[in-house]
Amino acid sequence: MLWVLMGKHSAITTTSHQIVDLQRVRSELLRWGYGTYRATVYVARVLYTALLMNRSPYLEDLSKEVLDALHRGNIPDYLKREVVLISRVLTALGIIDKPLSPAPNTDELAGDHDTSSESLSVWREWSQRWSKTSTLAPRTRK
Questions:
Q1: What CA–CA distance (Å, rounded) separates 139 from 34?
Q2: What is the pLDDT of residues 85-141, one digit of tens each?
Q3: CA distance 53 to 72
Q4: Residues 6 or more apart from 32 whose CB is under 8 A from it?
Q5: At what angle are helices 43-54 and 16-32 packed, to 10 degrees?
Q6: I want to staple 75 with a disulfide (CB 3.0 to 4.6 A). Which of 36, 60, 79, 141 is the partner?
Q7: DSSP string computed for 7-64
Q8: Would the pTM of this model clear 0.85, i.e. be above it?
Q9: Is residue 1 classed as helix, strand or coil in its secondary structure?
């Protein structure tokens, strides 16, 4: 399929070369202790997307720049983690020099984390107010 999408009309389905490339990446991830589903499904989605973006079906043609563009692109966070993982595998295989940095944790609050005593006292007041007015059972509020 990649060959057709990239203008090479000699094959209609994924070539054995892409299967071998995916197996190389998958084998490395399994060796590192990652699960079979993640190493097969999620990584395959990201790897084939990266190959399409690169306009080459060869793993050796992937560059850190292509992976970085994919990582910064509009893809779900769980797939961004796979891009970083693939970059680690490509580094281990000697294809790229350095892996991508992991994405910042999106669960963290953005902005300046002011820890002054004034902000802490405001937080304490809100917390106490919630504790006094919450409809949750007292045992649950702790």
A1: 39
A2: 999 999 999 999 999 988 555 444 444 555 566 767 887 888 888 888 888 887 776
A3: 13
A4: none
A5: 130
A6: 79
A7: T-TT-SS--HHHHHHHHHHHHHHHHHT--HHIIIIIHHHHHHHHHHHHT-S-GGG--H
A8: no
A9: coil
